[in-house]
């Protein structure tokens, strides 16, 4: 299969030697949504040795506008994203070993999956998982690449343990924004642009071209024609609890995780963020209005009727998801609305 | 004077891409609080801040002529 | 199918009104290679009304590394790219009218295809076709978006007739570079980055958000971490033969086209560029060496043995393609090697 | 003095991403010819040229302090 990768080995920074390295590497992809499907496709077409792809969700109609591995048939069959991704990726490149894991990417699962992994690609939709990835990356000394987007806006950062600052150095606390793809919308080109950055960084790391790795925080807005690279070298914080000298990996510890509890005798799950928030409920209600969901509110809470669930959000960030007893589903709904 | 740049949805909240004010002497946290109040912005405190294209902490002091950019971290994917 | 586009209508610059506009528009895509398959996928997922996709080539194994609509099965079946693209795009979105045209995008064909088209997306691999697209765009007053990439480098420019300079204003003559994906290689993230820019511009044009359209020439290099936007407003040339006052549309005229002739009694096609070139044969031979093709040369010509053809390139840009009588195939081989 | 930036494969041909020379008074065509000869570059004449991030013609004159970028148009796709 040398012909297959000929255009990539012709590119001097990869070459034949780089291609052989790519073929021996194992990439762990967290998330198989918009970024996940696109990043996975680039990795598999590039001939990575092994790809493990983790996702807890199934395919819905509203995914098709930007999630490039999936078709209408996958929606009708309500396939889990990881399983549908695996099927398509095998048809694209049968030489790559692909493992689909249909599960919530909890710290415990990450710790288990990461054993022989060379690189973690972040394609998740929430900061809780990203902060866990960040701690896992430091704990096991594995590079990871942050990527995220909303609307026409996106960003990427490459984190090399022992060399660059980590995401926790840059974000002292987990931001809860009330601005996700489910509330602010998303256009596919913004997804593609983040993938371009993440996948290029991934190839640099897989061929071990460390000098080429980007040392800036990249962000862009394709509709507003903005693009910027921020130097982050001096952000490295020796007191950081994730990458500093007295590290504790706080986001791997239970007390810092989102709490989900089935309420006794009711078809309801309570979701509670690790720290109390101060949400702007009036702003959130405007975003829900745009989504077209029936909604009621008062200064203390907001109640939103989605298809088969009713979600009640309190201004401290706590939420009740009525109409389900499934903890992972409740957490997924929460993250989709509150990021 | 100092140029302040607003990225992504911060631009919409501010109503424009950039403003020019005199921010010299303020630290980043003070500048955020000041701009948030002046322009009714609710999401500025969680934004990343860059001074002259370099990452800045809340305690960093703005100098005359510095350009300050506010970039909101997002979680979609 | 409102749920399908919900994340896109939630994005305020598109909204419900923009989505309705997208659904009524017709996009003409020239090329179904790396940029073509990616751009087509974004347009179809976004719900464009009609997509016409033109390509003369069939799928080969070396395409799979970056051409996102195609699978191993398409390679075994040696499907034409336009046909394979149509098949996959229908599975992605059955609401879009898709027309596949398996043909060389000559000026005559472009003139015929462009009749009810709202936007032309450039995804071709050579400047001859791009200059013809540029003339057609001016003649019929249809916006087009230039995109190109090699290695980790790429560029994009949005051209609105009557408003922006045209490609001929910027490039006074067609550059023959000896640097194409077949000689300099290409990595998929560079393709994705060009697609991100072209597709974002396309959406702006389809929803008629003219103020948001980019007025700069964007270029980037993902491996070298370069990105720049060049202002081009003052490049508009009133004397330009493609968009100026005394326009002649030179690239639609026969004498300015590449000439292909079957040599009498021989299984050979001669390809002659519209103007004499002064090729750097020693540089070209180094690139061919990287490709691994057997090769001989002297100061006047370079002879390259590909699979079933032998190509002899002279330093004035003329070439003999031995082993074929197919004019379109000969031109395709020429463009792949000499851009 | 003037900073000259080389994009993409021009960077490889020049051996570095940027050089600083005194180019004031030369026009773009003269500068290209000069740099091509000095650095043995074969592909500079077909490159697009920008002066201070604005497109420049062959006849445009370089001023003291201008930054000049050379960007090679490519045809791959």
Automatic annotation (TrEMBL), chains A, C:
<dbReference type="Pfam" id="PF00899">
    <property type="entry name" value="ThiF"/>
</dbReference>
<dbReference type="InterPro" id="IPR045886">
    <property type="entry name" value="ThiF/MoeB/HesA"/>
</dbReference>
<dbReference type="InterPro" id="IPR035985">
    <property type="entry name" value="Ubiquitin-activating_enz"/>
</dbReference>
<protein>
    <submittedName>
        <fullName>Molybdopterin/thiamine biosynthesis adenylyltransferase</fullName>
    </submittedName>
</protein>
<dbReference type="GO" id="GO:0016779">
    <property type="term" value="F:nucleotidyltransferase activity"/>
</dbReference>
<dbReference type="InterPro" id="IPR000594">
    <property type="entry name" value="ThiF_NAD_FAD-bd"/>
</dbReference>
<keyword id="KW-0808">Transferase</keyword>
<feature type="domain" description="THIF-type NAD/FAD binding fold">
    <location>
        <begin position="5"/>
        <end position="240"/>
    </location>
</feature>
<keyword id="KW-0548">Nucleotidyltransferase</keyword>
Automatic annotation (TrEMBL), chains B, D:
<dbReference type="InterPro" id="IPR044672">
    <property type="entry name" value="MOCS2A"/>
</dbReference>
<keyword id="KW-0547">Nucleotide-binding</keyword>
<dbReference type="InterPro" id="IPR016155">
    <property type="entry name" value="Mopterin_synth/thiamin_S_b"/>
</dbReference>
<comment type="similarity">
    <text>Belongs to the MoaD family.</text>
</comment>
<dbReference type="InterPro" id="IPR012675">
    <property type="entry name" value="Beta-grasp_dom_sf"/>
</dbReference>
<protein>
    <recommendedName>
        <fullName>Molybdopterin synthase sulfur carrier subunit</fullName>
    </recommendedName>
</protein>
<dbReference type="InterPro" id="IPR003749">
    <property type="entry name" value="ThiS/MoaD-like"/>
</dbReference>
<dbReference type="Pfam" id="PF02597">
    <property type="entry name" value="ThiS"/>
</dbReference>
């Amino acid at each position: 299969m040398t012909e297959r990768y000929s255009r990539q080995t012709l590119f001097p920074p990869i070459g034949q030697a780089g291609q052989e390295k790519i073929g021996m590497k194992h990439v762990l992809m967290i998330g198989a949504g918009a970024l996940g499907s696109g990043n996975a496709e680039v990795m598999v077409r590039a001939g990575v040795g092994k790809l493990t792809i983790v996702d807890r969700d199934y395919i819905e109609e509203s995914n098709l506008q930007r999630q490039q591995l999936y078709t209408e048939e996958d929606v009708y069959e309500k396939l889990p994203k990881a399983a549908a991704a695996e099927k398509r990726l095998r048809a694209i490149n049968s030489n790559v070993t692909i493992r689909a894991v249909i599960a919530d990417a909890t710290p415990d699962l990450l710790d288990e999956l990461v054993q022989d992994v060379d690189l973690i690609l972040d394609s998740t939709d929430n900061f809780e998982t990203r902060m866990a990835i960040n701690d896992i990356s430091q704990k096991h000394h594995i590079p990871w690449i942050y990527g995220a987007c909303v609307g026409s806006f996106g960003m990427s950062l490459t984190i090399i343990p022992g060399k660059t600052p980590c995401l926790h150095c840059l974000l002292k606390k987990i931001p809860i924004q009330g601005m996700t793809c489910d509330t602010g919308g998303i256009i596919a080109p913004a997804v593609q642009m983040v993938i371009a950055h993440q996948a290029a960084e991934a190839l640099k790391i897989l061929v071990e071209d460390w000098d080429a790795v980007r040392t800036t925080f990249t962000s862009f807005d394709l509709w507003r024609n903005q693009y910027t690279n921020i130097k982050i070298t001096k952000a490295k914080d020796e007191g950081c609890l994730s990458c500093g000298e007295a590290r504790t990996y706080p986001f791997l510890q239970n007390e810092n995780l989102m709490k989900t509890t089935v309420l006794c005798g009711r078809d309801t799950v309570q979701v509670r963020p690790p720290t109390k928030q101060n949400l702007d409920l009036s702003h959130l209600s405007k975003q829900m209005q745009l989504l077209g969901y029936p909604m009621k509110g008062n200064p203390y809470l907001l109640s939103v009727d989605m298809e088969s669930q009713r979600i009640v959000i309190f201004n401290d960030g706590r939420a009740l998801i009525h109409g389900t007893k499934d903890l992972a589903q409740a957490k997924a709904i929460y993250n989709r609305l509150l990021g | 004077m100092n140029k302040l740049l607003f990225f992504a949805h911060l631009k919409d909240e501010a109503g424009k891409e950039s403003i020019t004010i005199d921010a010299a002497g303020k630290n980043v946290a003070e500048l955020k609080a000041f701009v948030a109040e002046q322009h009714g912005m609710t999401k500025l405190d969680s934004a990343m801040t860059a001074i002259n294209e370099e990452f800045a902490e809340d305690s960093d002091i703005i100098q005359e002529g510095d350009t300050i950019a506010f970039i909101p971290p997002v979680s979609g994917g």
